[in-house]
Amino acid sequence: MALDRSCNTLTQVRRATLDNLFEGVAAYGSDGRLKLHNPAYLKIWGLSQDDVAGGPHIGEIVDRMRVFLDDRADWAATKQKVIAEITAHAAASSPLYHSDGSMLQVATVPLPDGNVLTSLDVTDMARVERALPERNETLETAGQLKSEFIANVSHDVAHVTERSHRLCRDSGEPVISGLSMSASSTTVTTSSGARACC
Q1: Reported confidence tier of residue 52, pLDDT bands at 50, 70, 90
Q2: Quick one: which of 92, 93, 128, 147 could link to 107 by a disulfide (CB 3.0–4.6 Å)?
Q3: 100 and 60 share one domain
Q4: Which tens digits make up the pLDDT trace of 75-118?
Q5: pTM of the model
Q6: Do 143 and 61 have their domain in common?
Q7: Distance between CA atoms of residues 83 and 58, nearest Å
């Protein structure tokens, strides 16, 4: 009696753990039939409880997943490839792109009497990973544009100053250096009333 109660408690804890995972988990037997799944698996693949009732064969489930997997090529070949990857008795992990634009990380883990398929939606993480280099590139481009702008303005100011000095020399007026340029005038009247270029 105590052993049964302990076994039931352990089963309930395992079920609660499985049901609360973010990853979709499905266990398929060596006969290719669904033996166990969690709610996240149904959500990720757009399946209902009716779709998985009675332990359907992986082929039936893949047909129900077609909306996510159809690459507009030969569906029969795509379906066979997916079934082979899920039922292969080898550990594997790879990204899978849904036709709706989302990205999953899908992994299969062999068991003595079948396979476990896990699916995790990594769309947001992939977007962040793509956005970081784009943001860095944007910041680098902005910094480069700022540097080029400052270099151009400095060059233009130096050119205007040099030209002003040259014009003043050519006109024969005295040149005063070291004064700040004013946007309104390039000549200065000294206290004695003499005009000078700057």
Answers
A1: very high
A2: 93
A3: yes
A4: 888 889 888 888 888 898 888 887 778 888 889 999 898 999 88
A5: 0.59
A6: no
A7: 7
Judge whether 108 and 26 are in contact, CB under 8 Å: no
- Kindly state whether residues 104 and 134 are assigned to the same domain: no
Say yes or no: 74 and 140 in one domain. Answer: no
Give residue 86's pLDDT. 85
What are 75's two structure tokens?
Answer: 């569906």
Which single residue is written with the structure tokens 């070291």? Answer: 178
Same-domain check for residues 24 and 113: yes
> Does the pLDDT at position 44 exceed 80?
yes
Given a contact cutoff of 8 angstroms between Cβ atoms, the answer to whether 160 and 140 are in contact is: no
Supply the range of the domain harboring residue 41.
Answer: 2-121
51 close to 61: Cβ distance less than 8 angstroms? yes
What distance lies between CA 147 and its chain's CA centroid? 30
| Cα 95 from Cα 105, distance rounded (Å) | 4
Structurally, the chain folds into a number of domains equal to: 2
Do residues 103 and 23 share a domain? yes
